[in-house]
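Changelog note: in this version the structure field was regenerated for every chain. One regenerated record is shown below for reference.
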Amino acid sequence: MKPEEHLKDRLTNCSKADLRPVDQEFLDKNGMEEMIYRLLTSKKFRKWSVMDTVEQKVRRALSLCIPENKPIKFSCPFGGYKLWRLASAPEVDWAEYFMIAYNTEYIAPILKIYKPGVELIFTSDAVILERMNNISKTDSNLYFDSFKALLNKYRQYLPNNFSMDIVRIADLYENEQKLHEEVDRLIPEIEAEYKAMGDKETNLNLITSELNIQWQGAEDWSKYTDEEKKEKIRIGPIIHDAYCRISKRAEYIKGDDKIMVFTTPGKSSIPIGTTKTSVTKFWTGFGVLEKKGDSYFDRVLSPQQFDKIKDQPHEVVQTDLIPLKNFKEIWVYPEELRFS
């Protein structure tokens, strides 16, 4: 198989699944809710164990949807932008392509056995970016539009009982001012929690915050004094956590009838990673292929990982599969990439 054939196969066949005899036996014996819970927590996809709180949440959602023959609703919250330090920014690249294929592959067995199917909604947090990281609305809008275009390409190959879309959390509010007012009301609560944090966690938050800020972005923050920059770095994680608690966002992605999937572990989500071998958040990662024997595998690299391997021998393969600017070529590495 050539790289182009692998890429096309991921697009056209990721929603196809076969039910094994052992799965049919389990379904017949235990019923639909247990079968789907088993599929959702399969070690084939999840990268960590499922917390008790997540199990309760997933079972609750299944109990609300399946007896009523309603589609099972999944939410996937994410940043809603492409990390500005990546060359592919501000649009989607192969990282998003691989992630969508992987999420579809994860859900595919459910589509086979449950006729009402599945709704998968990616929820964009872009509304808070300008305030938190100085990412311009122009860039986040370009990302949103390219993500939507990529979803449209996948939709051509999905069964009728599977729908995917992307929604801006900002659109759940009457206007952005009301959203930011709610964030402001939550900030004192978050600040109090941060004061009680240990030094290790505080320092990690500050390091991550500084890496995410685009100093010359929507505005020129590079002109700020050192003290002003320190305040931007300090307040960024606090704004982020306050935003994550706003009421309409919480209800939309964590409502009783929703199952949340995410790249890494959390108290509310099933941690499935980004691809079979990746856990890097797709909006902060760069997608490449690894060759193993005669097969190819999808990999999403963090900026730090990419810096380590960008000069290693690789092939740059031309492709016209997706009519977006970051899909004219794909980097192919001749062996599995290892990071120690």
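Spot check on this record: The longest strand covers residues 72-78. Strands lie at 72-78, 118-124, 162-168, 258-262, 269-271, 286-292, 295-301, 315-318, 329-333.
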